[in-house]
Amino acid sequence: KHDIHTALDTSGGPFCMEPDYLESFQKLMDVTDLFILDMKEMDPERHKALTGQDNRNILEFARYLSAHKKPMWIRHVLVPGLTDSRESLEALYDFIRELKSVERVEILPYHTLGVHKYEAMEQEYKLKDVKENTPEQLEKATEVFKKYFTTVVVN
Question: Alpha-carbon Rg of the chain, whole angstroms?
Answer without folding.
Answer: 17
